[in-house]
Amino acid sequence: MLHEKLGGLYEEVARRNAGETEFHQSVYEVLTSLGPVVDKHPEYVDSEVIRRLCEPERQIIFRVPWVDDNGTVQINRGFRVEFNSALGPFKGGLRFHPSVYLGIVKFLGFEQIFKNSLTGMPIGGAKGGADFDPKGRSDDEVMRFCQSFMTELYRHLGEYTDVPAGDIGVGMREIGYLFGQYKRITNRYESGVLTGKGTTWGGSLVRTEATGYGTVYFVNEILKSHNDSFEGKRAVVSGSGNVAIYAVEKVQELGGAVIACSDSNGYVVDEKGIDVDLLKEVKEVRRGRIADYAEMRGGAASFVADRNVWEVPCDIALPCATQNEINGDEARSLITNGCRIVAEGANMPCSPTAIKQFADAGVTFAPGKAANAGGVATSALEMQQNASRDSWTFAETEQRLEQIMHRIHNRCLSTADEYGQPGNYVAGANIAGFIRVADAMLALGVV
Ligand code: GLU
């Protein structure tokens, strides 16, 4: 239920952004947490800070024409939603996936404002991407697409203006092509304009691992707060992209076993624990499918086609694939099978129904804007290194990531306590993220 002072605003957002259901969902989720804040601080409503937050500062939509390997002209649609720059330059990833449309970019950009705020670092919120499907495309096609995309986007970017990075479908290869084109057009080696770069050309160590590692560090903080650890725990991870791979690696480093992971064709179960080197070989080197993993692992693992990984019993669930992958049915099966902790490595993988079921069943739920903030936080560390023309060791960077996750965890818990909802990570993350950005907006005036 929304606070009486916020219901009208939600109606307005839904009406003015018709059909953008994922965006509505992400706004609703934040607004549901803000009731006690509005009671304590009516100035946030009186100054229209919340209404301003729901309206992006700038939305860019553009044509991306390119020529495929057969000589056929292809047209995609590109987006960049620069949502809020009260805390620093716009910051957030680019997603290349056929499902991308304005509603998805806006939900991701809105989430990013609060996530970035929670990190405590000087970064605003944004997101972008295109409805381009990299699956099955050659390297050359991906390069030509990235060059065309950047030929429009470059004019909106800058290390003090807007700093994109990766997301689904955009990794180091794509960031390389984008950076190459930016450098060519502007004639500037402006390292701080993109993050997630290769380590030989301005990237930070640990950026590749950061989202997955950070999510697991967050869960480790939850476990520690209950005098518990990963030792002997069974975890299930959905997805097998960048976030999933490094979540698997860190769970196993900390003594747990990840017994299943997935892709859009199905899932693999490996009772001895996923062989992370083989997973990297299949997904990062060969760009293959998760079914190939089972085949290459011989009898040790089995592939289950077209079914949902959440039917595999586990203690800890880490959804690291995409939005709304856990709905009521999946949540019910996790709860019935005894799952105790769910932490979002992806953005908004759990639907509102699922989150409510976890709360009712006493399952600890860590929302993405807190649990997966390690990725963007390490992007901010990359920006720091670029600004000082320095590069830090793996160990030093990872230590900073771990400290950041520790601080985010404690900030969520102390804020939840302060607002009378002990142990509620959703309330803690939304309120703490909101207050930092809202106070900055009040200080900067009506702009
Ligand atoms: N796409 C990532 C996220 O969802 C990372 C963004 C970034 O590093 O700028 O937070």
UniProtKB/TrEMBL annotation:
Residues marked Important for catalysis (site): 167
Catalytic-site annotation from UniProt: 127
Positions of NAD(+) binding: 211, 242
GO molecular function, one term: nucleotide binding
UniProt-annotated binding residues for substrate: 91, 112, 115, 166, 379
The entry's keywords: NAD, Nucleotide-binding, Oxidoreductase
UniProt keyword annotation of Nucleotide-binding present: yes
Example GO biological process: glutamate biosynthetic process
Family matches, as InterPro entries: Aminoacid_DH-like_N_sf, Glu/Leu/Phe/Val/Trp_DH, Glu/Leu/Phe/Val/Trp_DH_C, Glu/Leu/Phe/Val/Trp_DH_dimer, Glu_DH, Glu_Leu_Phe_Val_DH, NAD(P)-bd_dom_sf, NAD_bind_Glu_DH
Keyword NAD: yes
Any GO CC annotation of this UniProt entry: cytosol
Family: Belongs to the Glu/Leu/Phe/Val dehydrogenases family.
Quaternary structure, from the entry: Homohexamer.
NCBIfam families given in the database record: PRK09414.1
UniProt-recorded name of the protein: Glutamate dehydrogenase
Organism, as annotated: Mycolicibacterium agri (Mycobacterium agri)
